[in-house]
UniProtKB/TrEMBL annotation, chains A, B:
Domain named FAD-binding PCMH-type: residues: 42-223
Gene Ontology MF annotations: catalytic activity; FAD binding
InterPro entries found in the cross-reference section: FAD-bd_oxidored_4_C, FAD-bd_PCMH, FAD-bd_PCMH-like_sf, FAD-bd_PCMH_sub1, FAD-bd_PCMH_sub2, FAD-linked_Oxase-like_C, FAD-oxidored/transferase_4, Oxid_FAD_bind_N
Name this polypeptide is given: FAD-binding oxidoreductase
Hydrolase keyword on record: no
Keywords: FAD, Flavoprotein
Domain of life: Bacteria
GO biological process entries: respiratory electron transport chain
Length: 480, 480
């Protein structure tokens, strides 16, 4: 153990000598916020935290680590939900934080594109783009803290996926530092470029296992000045999915969000925000928060009104309210956000992020909630989310007075029961959060042999020394 | 030479014995249509043409070829424009045609998805999907002959890219036969699935160099019942790009096509279709064929009228006509299609498919046409295409009486001059057609070393024996 400490101390000294002390944090107190995950469930440690300010400094850091035999855990805003950015071998891993590599290089409204460094905070980026009359559609709860490099590395989803796609579909080009310290220079802003195999796709969603994304060129669209937001009450999740299908046809590509919430959403939101106004009276079995948006000549309010008139006449929507101001729209979205905070207030719980084919979603949620209720009768299931994408967050809240290891066991059991139902429906155990370290075992146990071999072959081809994020997504060397 | 013939004859016999004579064509007359490219510019040969009817038969064919030391050129509808599906080493390559693997496995309107085999002809697929009220947006000139596996392998573009993206964005999952004969089973219809590195992305646009795509699951959208089509006259290409930007804002995501044409388009179209009505009088410097489409409650005619009122008031559009019937819309599109046929009637010519950043497109076309005019004063440049994507087909027509080798030299010279201007603008020499064998040298000479190494590493990792389409995209073994 003493030897191991000496080795770590020597590595720290070497890193400081090679990279300069400004780039290298080694004090436990300074490193803490990088070593603890977003939910605060796990606190790890690292040999050092490296904080380069330029792509060249990232390349130097990669070379230094390779020479020293240290592996690298890349980290953006540290808002990941699956421990993809937290070391699991603190004595031989460094965290490489992109937070100081955070310039916006260009925003070109005429080109509908921007080039930004990996460390840009998503909301700051969106604001700077909005100042030019343009819009970057990626929108998720953590946008005030997450960074674009992390969004790309995890192929982040969020509330606007049904219209604009996952992060992958918003990326035009990447700059990536590779394992040999060379730079993959692919920051094109071309909308179409079909020159052979599209290598950048490999790094999107790789969670930092193949290289370090240092900058991204992204697609922009005109800013949607006109937004219509409605909260709708329905008889069931099944009806919500019927409503989604109809909205896809009636409102076409102008629908930008369609979020499902159960009645419990309001209780949970109120627990987090006691003064939150709840604009629908009564207690209905299902709710949908729906948004239509557009720019220029598009009249989204008229469209929303005509749509609701039709679906209320047909009895598909039983009650509803359209926000009459931006402030009211904001307070409708606060219900959706507050329900997350409310769950956190009830203590640690089983969070999930699963998807199934859209046509099976209602039956899946019904089966999964029944299975959980049977296995864990004292727990509460709460299912909500981006149902238009077939993606539901089916969370399980243990009784508030259940604590410690007993609580952890219930959470583990809930996950196991849920995943069994996901498998029956040929669904995904990770619709948007990724694999990281948290879901690795569940991922690997479901991985067909052909796919595993191909993943391993690609990893070895691109990162032959397994330098980047070992233990994330796959356990390839057996020692992570 | 006699020996070589014997080897080929033995290989043919072995293939027939292993795979059955129904799967294996070896007669030159039967193989001809597979060995000649779409334009008829090149006629090659092959050891055999294999025509499997199932994924299992594809796997058997792959294994047989690997054992015999033959490499495989996969082929869909043989409509490619860059010789990606035509052998360049006839005595050691077989063509594997997917044309008999052409079932539609499922169309699920409730799921907005379909699963189809690689050999499905695109237009047949679109029709079958339309019968269910759904829409598959991929639309290109060759759609009556091209096959979906080829569309995916080449990441095909077409006229609807500005709204729906390239083929890559329409793919939910793939089934691929790999070099070892195993099957990558990834025919998911999940809209969101973020389980690690997305391996299917590697095969999209790989032009058959990494595996053989045997089936595809695709995204569908509701059928756009309402379509407004307009032909607009403008003062310049510059104005056309200004118009595009305004249309992106005013018409939002409802614009589905925006094609630029020069005045010469009408002459060319009339040369191919003498009776084609030309609905705009006068001779303007630039034309745009624009389409807005939607389903359900969207009134596209009203939107088009209000849009045109604004841009004509502002003088951006100087004349225009909105199609008043489907037949009239069809005849507007015939101008666009006819101009391609008209070019073909003027004899072989330099076809290009380049892209530059949108904001530089007008200046690029001006510079490129000037450079060509200076280098080749007797030639005519014709620039048209998907300018909203920054993608222009800048073709060069030699004088009709220039024939044979002299004509080929002019075509080569035109390509060289054009590509030099593309390089100045940091553009792409292939916006949508791919690399194949035709553009390989131009691709490789522009390939940064980092990217080349990564491409080679991935190729060797996925196809270690260089079984698939050697000589396409990259020359890796020096013998292709």
């Amino acid at each position: 153990m003493a030897d191991q400490h000496n080795v770590v101390a020597e590595h720290r000294l070497s890193l400081q000598e090679r990279l300069g002390s400004d780039m290298v944090l080694t004090e436990a107190s300074e490193m803490l916020r990088y070593c603890r995950d977003w939910h605060g469930d796990v606190t790890s440690a690292a040999v050092a935290v490296l904080r380069p300010r330029s792509t060249a400094e990232v390349a130097a850091a990669v070379t230094a680590c390779r020479v020293l035999g240290l592996s690298i855990v890349p980290q953006g805003g540290n808002t990941g939900l699956v421990l993809g950015g937290i070391p699991d071998a603190p004595e031989r891993q460094v965290i490489l934080s992109l937070e100081r590599l955070n310039r916006i290089r260009t925003i070109d409204a005429d080109d509908f594109s921007a080039v930004v460094e990996a460390g840009c905070i998503l909301s700051e980026l969106k604001d700077a783009i909005a100042d030019k009359g343009m819009f970057f559609p990626l929108a998720l709860g953590a946008q005030g803290s997450c960074r674009i490099g992390g969004n790309v590395s995890t192929n982040a989803g969020g509330i606007n996926v049904l219209r604009y796609g996952m992060t992958r579909e918003l990326v035009l080009g990447l700059e990536v530092v590779l394992a040999d310290g060379t730079i993959f220079e692919g920051l094109s802003t071309l909308r179409k470029d079909n020159r052979g195999i599209d290598l950048k796709q490999l790094f999107i969603g790789a969670e930092g296992t193949l290289g370090i994304i240092t900058a991204v060129s992204i697609k922009l669209t005109p800013y949607p000045d006109h937004v219509a937001t409605a909260l709708l009450a329905l008889a069931s999740l099944d009806d919500a999915i019927t409503l989604y299908r109809r909205a896809r046809r009636d409102c076409c590509d102008l629908m930008s969000a369609f979020e499902f919430m159960p009645p419990l959403a309001f209780d949970l939101a109120r627990e987090a925000m006691p003064d939150l106004p709840i604009p629908i009276a009564g207690d209905y079995p299902a709710y949908v928060l729906m948004e239509i948006s557009g720019s220029g000549l598009i009249d989204v309010n008229d469209l929303m009104e005509r749509f609701l008139e039709g679906v209320m006449t047909d009895g598909l929507v039983v009650d509803g309210t359209i926000a009459s101001s931006q402030a009211q729209a904001r307070s409708l979205w606060l219900i959706r956000e507050g329900m997350n905070e409310g769950q956190a207030k009830r203590g640690s719980h089983m969070r999930s992020d699963v998807s199934v084919p859209l046509s099976k979603l209602a039956s899946f949620v019904s089966d999964a909630e029944a299975a959980i209720s049977q296995a864990l009768p004292d727990c509460i299931s709460v299912s909500y989310g981006h149902v238009g994408d077939g993606n539901v967050h089916l969370n399980v809240l243990p009784p508030t007075d259940l604590l410690g290891e007993a609580r952890d066991q219930v959470i583990y059991k809930a996950k196991t029961v849920l995943n069994e139902v996901v498998d029956l429906y040929q669904g995904s155990i990770s619709a948007e959060h990724g694999i990281g370290r948290l879901k690795r075992a569940d991922f690997e146990s479901r991985l067909p042999d052909t796919r595993r071999k191909l993943l391993a072959a690609v990893k070895h081809a691109v990162d032959p020394h397994l330098l980047f994020n070992p233990g994330c997504q796959l356990n390839l060397n057996g020692i992570s």
